[in-house]
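Running this now, will post back.
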Amino acid sequence: MSYNFGAISNSVTPEKAEKREKKKRKRDRRLAMGDERVKAEALQVLGLFQVLPKLVVFDLDYTIWPFYCECRSKREMPSLYPHVKGILYALKDKGIDIAIASRSPTPDIAKTFLDKLGIQSMFVAQVKNMGATSILVEIGVNQRAFQRGLTEFSNSKATDKSGSSGKSKQK
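Update: finished.
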């Protein structure tokens, strides 16, 4: 007597695996193109300002990603808001340091997610003696919030006679 288990098998055929991989590569290319477009737009926004910050600090939960770390498992694959990577790349290209700040009760999960997303190395490890301009970001960081933060920073430095914590525009 023989049994055919093919109908209930969970194995993936080579054809299905190849189709999945093609779909993943196509999605990755589309996302990378979006990151480059956002980066170009962010660089244009940065070019509008005479004074730039030395450091930009981002919160994590509901700022760079749409969730609270403590509600997730390390095994999950996190996602960023659509404009985040492009803005981070633009800041790095301009020589502006970026850092993160979070009150998450699960910093181990946050670090794991930053590693999984491939952005952990973009953030500086230590920040000392710098003034800060902060803005509330309602639904994740995007181009509009980015420009608003730069505007508030620029305006605060224009009234600061010393200007010692600003960064001159580079050409």
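The chain is about 40% helix and 10% strand. More later if anyone needs it.
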